[in-house]
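Hi there,

I know you've been waiting on this one. I reran it after we fixed the sequence typo, so this is the corrected version. Both the input and the resulting structure follow.
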Amino acid sequence: MLFCDKSGSMSGGPFRTMTEGLEALAGTIFGDTVEDNCFAKVHTAYYSSELYPHVTTKKDEYLAKVSGEKVGGMTNFVACFEYIQDTLEKYPEGTRFSIIFLTDGNESINKKDVLAASLENLKGMFQIMAETANK
């Protein structure tokens, strides 16, 4: 899962650098065929005031998504955390995930207590998953 900040604070060099990095990452994530991919599905979620998720198994779809995004809006980490929880609940127990956040780190929508509660919920879910995996 790739979470990509497209808020206004990322404009210019930071967004351009992130996009170039995501394009370069495509060669590692995607193989010559779907069977050669590193992951069964690639979740790429751009976020600003809202979350814009995209799921694919195809390199060309991923690259089209990455190259077609524009900067604008505020930053909403809570929407990202909720997406992670909702998505992980849909997969079978034991499914492995990689989650990468690309951001300048400036939450600008949610109050600190809302953000902290959302992060604690996510951490709790990860703890349960880890305990289940270690049984």
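Quick highlight: Helices lie at 13-29, 59-67, 77-90, 112-133.

Best,
R. S.
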